């Protein structure tokens, strides 16, 4: 039986009614309470409060300089990348002085102040999402089932095994357990008209950046990091940029857990298609997609790439950039240059409105 990989991003949760965007978090009491601790609610006062993550103040500072009113999470991660990789040029001296004061108070390096701040910021966002799910669990479960059904029909999953590569922190299988049945599909029966449920032969879910039940990871892409980046030796601004990458932090987390993960990717022989639904395809996740495409040898295979979307109006540009960037990684530059053309010619690249 064939297998489909379904890659989902934050657009999925937003379509299900979950307030999971950065703006939702920013406008919530989980963020505003941090500001109320210092009623001026400016980056200076947020950084002065050593009881909260330094990233509340840093992101408040960057946001005040940005024209974006509703930044996507991949854009927020781009802000984080710019700060840790270009510390001196990205932050004014007043901001850097505040970070230094916080680090000196804790007898920590600036690097550790930023790393520990990321972890605390993640905990706050995790608590926010857990609260949102608690308030809206029934609606989320219902909407997730219906949306998966629409994707399933639109992307022609047929009677496939389903492997979900989930870039969100929510667990689809957990919140739609009553709707999903993991047993072999009867022939020619993909949707049960009796109770409205639909069935996959099997469903495996892999949450790439962690789950709300354990830990979550917010960070930057591995391609942004060399082994180290000496920013300013005179002031001892020495950062190991790789420590802020999602890949490194995932490796460290797994060493703590000390367990073997069984959710391995489907074999090359059984994979029929890779379906993306409302993922931003931002550069902070490109390493994952490059690894995925390399593993399945997209250039020489028959695997179909389908990009399903609901409200990403820049989907064409995002898909073009993803395929173009991947092509640049080819040792055979001619193959890399004509990859998009080859996929279109072989009808292996499709964009679908769901």
Structure in a nutshell:
By secondary structure, the protein is an alpha/beta fold.
Main sheet attributes: strand count, strand direction, barrel closure: 6 strands, parallel
Mean pLDDT: 82
Over the alpha carbons, how many angstroms does the gyration radius reach? 22 Å
Number of DSSP E strands: 8
Shape: globular
Chain-wise SSE layout:
Layout: E1 3-8, H1 10-15, H2 22-27, H3 29-36, H4 43-48, H5 54-65, H6 73-85, H7 87-90, H8 93-106, H9 110-154, E2 161-166, H10 172-175, E3 203-207, E4 229-232, E5 237-239, H11 246-257, E6 271-277, H12 286-295, E7 304-309, H13 315-327, H14 333-337, H15 339-345, E8 349-353
Parallel strand pairs: 1-2, 1-6, 2-3, 6-7, 7-8
Antiparallel strand pairs: 4-5
Helix pairs in contact: 8-9
